[in-house]
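3.2 Worked example (two chains)
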Amino acid sequence: MTEHRAQVDELLADYRRSRDQLASVQRELASVTASARDAAGLITATVGPRGTLTSLAIAEDAYRRYRPAELAEQIVRATGDATARALARAAEVLAPALPSETDPQALLLGTGDLEAGEIAPDKPPAERAAEEESYEDQNWIQEGTR
């Protein structure tokens, strides 16, 4: 009976260690942030752990340097770069808590072990329709016959 109790105590201790490690990883993941700038250093985008934009700083000169569409493009690009950095940092934080054969980035992206073709979005209906043969203008009734 004492041996059984020792096993139970060891299992509980393992569980508590795992739970503490998971809590630590969760806290660290929640604090992940990353920033990126445009090439001119006029725009700085900062994102949180899930890539959500949390801060955007635009220098006064950016409005003179970029046309509106270019400014928007630079903001999107800087935000994308910051998101990629945040994802890489989150993967570093998560990796020690995962089995060695698990890809932390794939886990964070929700893709697991799926191939790119398996997760590609379906084509929009209009695009699918354009690829299909159309019989809309086809006359199925022969002229002069009944």
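3.2.1 Second chain
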Amino acid sequence: MKKLITLILFIFSMQIFAGQYQVTKQKNVTLSKEQIEVENKKIEERLNNYAKKDLKESLISEFKKVIKDIPEEGYYILLELFSQLSNFIVENTKIKIKNIKYLSNTKAVVKSKITMPSSDSFDNLNEGELEKKFIKKYNLKEFENTNDLKTLSKLGILMADFIKKEFKEKPSYRVIEGDINLEKVKNGWEIKGI
């Protein structure tokens, strides 16, 4: 579960743009200042779309493979939990483009700084506290490890709420800096490597 959450954190790291950035170009680049401004906007839109749509679809596809053998009712419960956590991560992730470097008129490298919730927010779950809240909220005598789908659904919702609350009380972020390679295809930019 921790590896899946860490994967979610990284994948949704390409989310929200913040602030201005530097633009550089190689000597062989013949784009005018106005053309570069237009291309910068297209690159921003592509990265934003990649985070909001492409990566989310890819991640959901991978998640579906992991839970494929779960009965239909449980499958949709886990998918909903995953969606809630994904939205939480997206809402709390920011990306700052530090530099767009045009290697040619059709190739660019984007240096970025990504700030996202740290996996510490998920690793430090106090299982005892979570169990007590679960028992109290659902009026149980004691917590039983069960495969009952209704119980798992309730626990999943409680866990998502607990993670959100813990993060708001003790926010923990990590910063990742990296390069994203893009290539112009027709009138848009495609990501060729991260």
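3.3 Remarks
The chain is about 50% helix and 25% strand.
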